[in-house]
Amino acid sequence: MEKKEKFIRNKEKSIQLIRFIVQTLFALLCIWIGIEFSQFIKFLETNGTAGSGYRPPGVEGFLPISSLMSLYYFLQSGIIHPVHPAGFFIFIAIVGMSLVFRKSFCSWLCPIGFLSELVGDFGDKITRKIFKRRIKIWKYLDYFLRSLKYLLLAFFTFSIFSMSEIALAYFLGGDYNIMSDVKMYYFFANISQTAFIVIGVLFLLSIIYRNFWCRYLCPYGAFLGLLGFLSPTRIKRNTSTCIDCGLCAKACPSFIKVDKVITVNSDECTSCMNCIDACPVENTLELKYIASEKKINKKLVALGVVIIFLAITGLGMITGNWQNKVPKDVYIKLNKNVNSIGHPMSSEDIKKLNEESERKAK
Ligand code: SF4
Ligand code: SF4
């Protein structure tokens, strides 16, 4: 602090309230989708005599693996697969947000990220009271644990990208994929003791250690973190005005040493802008375009994230690729034996379909 005792105080308004509002609205939307989907399940269970026949397409946002397969199928065939078209557009919207504002989905929209943040704030207060600081895992153990989400991501992407167009079409059009959202509903509605314990442990770990799930295990976040490297925006620190107070690093939920770098290049940066809001010096920590070094207004990030999401999902709606075309009676029929619908393809099946695809291509 000695080198620059006098500085111009940062009077810029914090963006955190707006971020909290956006996160809350999106979480409420997800809850609403959950309620509507439970009514649809009731409709299936009662052969259409109760509940609601409306299946909310937004539920497909919770099927990222199916959506990634749809995207890869689209890249190969030029066709948007009709089983979970909304999932395809939601996935592209999230990818789009990450390409512009790094891993912003995690800190602006993701309901799991939001919950992690809330319990992490609560946990921080407790650990700061007891230990006078946040708990931080030993550096090398942290590197090892962070690699787990990349291993999971590598497993999923390798499995998907090794599938031919025919194999993808077979999977995407199969009963397992059609019912994947219903199966997910039953997984949580009739949660097994083991799954309950695992989720409970992850929840507790997220209280003790901020963003435990997001930082170490979420393959979706890993994917978005990698995409973030392509983003034209970065948090930048002006070393000539910085007073080395370290408040930015202290505020960063991703444990990034913002006070030690000029440009934040970490895959863990979610563009939450907590660091910028914590910085006490004017024009010292800013979100900038890499190429022009031009400062980006914080409100533009809020607006940008929401607009990208609404524009791309809206495109799905206006082009008629939102509601899937699976008839309700097919859903009712499949739901009768939903527990016996298993994954349709072994690696041997995929190999055979890939070979068939190669034969056709020749
Ligand atoms: S570096 Fe700043 S914007 Fe990035 S995660 Fe940390 S606090 Fe958020
Ligand atoms: S950039 Fe970080 S260390 Fe420098 S003045 Fe701002 S908060 Fe303090």
Automatic annotation (TrEMBL):
The keyword Transmembrane is assigned to this record: yes
Record field: transmembrane: 20-41, 86-105, 150-172, 184-207, 300-318
Record organism: Stygiobacter electus
Signal peptide boundaries: none
Protein name, per record: 4Fe-4S binding protein
UniProt keyword annotations, A-Z: Cell membrane, Iron, Iron-sulfur, Membrane, Metal-binding, Transmembrane, Transmembrane helix
Superkingdom of the source species: Bacteria
Record-level Gene Ontology MF annotations: iron-sulfur cluster binding; metal ion binding
